[in-house]
């Protein structure tokens, strides 16, 4: 199968690199110097599980340059890049293309499907710690590498055999992959940490250490987690664990001076994932008739501050 990975950063670089190491036909969609270095020297992958690899078999190009029709597309970009991604998928994806979004934002597959009706667009989520060390070099310092993907409730199960094959390819490449019937639960479980820590961190202007112990920051974080849990229940999702306890354990592993990607994006003066991580929850609250006052407060504050 022909794989395309949109975004060659810490997430997409590892997904594409692991698959290419197994001999699969992989094209990374990248930009700027990162693209130039991958073209010249291949992708340098420094993985705590694979070791250091120089993967010359992986192909790389920009969105404008890609002219083939892929079998599978992994979307590994920030939420604010979805417009470019949508236009790209409209051009290159066919009815036989399977698209698996691996973004931080919950329900991205359903959103993409509204504008890209031809391909089969699933929902997905990923657990990985990866980053670009330098142009052409991607680092995976932690062994956790899990991908969940699947059909949304009521979605026609077209290209299911293809999805099963993708799961097999990912597992053989060393990725803990699950083609699941509970993708909404899995994705919202991950989102129940990513969104609250992003929202609370930027609203209170606090680093990781402030959330690890009882106090105002941790109280706001847990309130946001409970609101995500309330949203999930309204959607008919039953969680397997206490989300507050789960996410408190994740907080324990944070460095005291750590910041979220949304804080860093705003600090650099660029766009952020505020719309996907916060405003989207308010829109879903309206759809399901929920209050979710903490999310509404942070959403209004972000608008007042001009945070995009």
How would the blueprint of this fold be written?
Layout: E1 2-6, H1 12-21, E2 25-29, H2 32-41, E3 43-47, E4 51-55, E5 59-61, E6 72-75, H3 82-92, E7 98-101, H4 108-115, E8 120-121, E9 123-128, E10 131-134, E11 137-140, E12 145-150, H5 160-172, E13 176-179, H6 183-204, H7 216-234, H8 243-252, H9 261-267, H10 274-288, H11 293-305
Parallel strand pairs: 1-2, 1-6, 2-5, 3-11, 6-7, 7-8, 12-13
Antiparallel strand pairs: 3-4, 9-12, 10-11
Helix pairs in contact: 6-7, 7-8, 10-11
Walkthrough of the structure:
This protein has 308 residues and is of the alpha/beta class. It folds into two domains: 2-180, NAD(P)-binding Rossmann-like Domain (Rossmann fold); 184-305, N-(1-d-carboxylethyl)-l-norvaline Dehydrogenase, domain 2. It has eleven helices and 13 strands. It has a six-stranded parallel sheet. It has a four-stranded mixed sheet with strand order 4-3-11-10. A three-stranded mixed sheet has the order 9-12-13. α7 crosses α8 (243-252). It starts with a strand and ends with a helix.
Write out the strand line-up for the largest beta sheet, numbering strands in chain order: 5-2-1-6-7-8
Shape: globular
Portion of residues in helices?
40-55%
Structural class label: alpha/beta
- DSSP strand (E) fraction? 15-25%
- The structural domain count equals 2
CATH topology of the largest domain, by name, is Rossmann fold
CATH class of the largest domain: Alpha Beta
Rg = 19 Å
Mean pLDDT equals 96
Q: Whole-Å distance between the termini?
A: 38 Å
Per CATH, the superfamily of the largest domain is NAD(P)-binding Rossmann-like Domain
**In terms of per-residue confidence, which ranges show pLDDT below 50 for 5 or more consecutive residues?**
none
Largest sheet: 6 strands, parallel
The sequence of SSEs as H and E is EHEHEEEEHEHEEEEEHEHHHHHH
CATH architecture of the largest domain: 3-Layer(aba) Sandwich
Annotation field: number of helices:
11
Give the strand tally: 13
């Amino acid at each position: 199968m022909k794989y395309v990975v949109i975004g060659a950063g810490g997430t997409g670089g590892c997904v594409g690199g692991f698959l290419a190491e197994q001999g699969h036909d992989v094209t990374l969609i990248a930009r700027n110097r990162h693209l130039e270095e991958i073209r010249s020297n291949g992708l340098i992958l420094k993985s705590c599980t694979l070791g250091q690899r120089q993967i010359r078999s992986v192909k790389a190009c920009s969105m404008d340059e890609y002219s083939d029709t892929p079998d599978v597309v992994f979307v590994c970009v920030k939420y604010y890049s979805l417009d470019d991604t949508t236009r790209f998928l409209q051009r290159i994806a066919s009815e036989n293309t399977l698209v698996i979004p691996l973004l931080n934002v919950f329900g991205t597959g359903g959103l993409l499907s509204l504008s890209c009706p031809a391909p089969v667009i699933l929902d997905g989520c990923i657990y990985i710690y990866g980053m670009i060390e330098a142009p052409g070099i991607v680092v995976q310092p932690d062994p956790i590498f899990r991908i969940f993907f699947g059909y949304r409730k009521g979605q026609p199960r077209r290209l299911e055999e293809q999805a099963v094959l993708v799961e097999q390819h990912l597992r053989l490449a060393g990725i803990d992959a699950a083609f699941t019937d509970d993708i909404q639960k899995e994705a919202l479980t991950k989102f129940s940490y990513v969104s609250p820590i992003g929202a609370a961190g930027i609203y209170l202007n606090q680093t990781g250490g402030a959330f690890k112990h009882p106090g105002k920051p941790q109280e706001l974080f847990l309130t946001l987690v409970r609101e995500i849990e309330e949203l999930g229940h309204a959607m008919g999702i039953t969680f397997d664990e206490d989300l507050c306890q789960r996410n408190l354990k994740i907080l324990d592993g944070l460095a005291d001076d750590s910041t979220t990607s949304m804080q860093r994006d705003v600090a650099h003066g660029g766009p952020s994932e505020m719309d996907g991580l916060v405003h989207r929850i308010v829109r879903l609250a309206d759809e399901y008739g929920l209050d979710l006052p903490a999310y509404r407060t942070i959403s209004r504050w972000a608008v007042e501050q001009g945070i995009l």
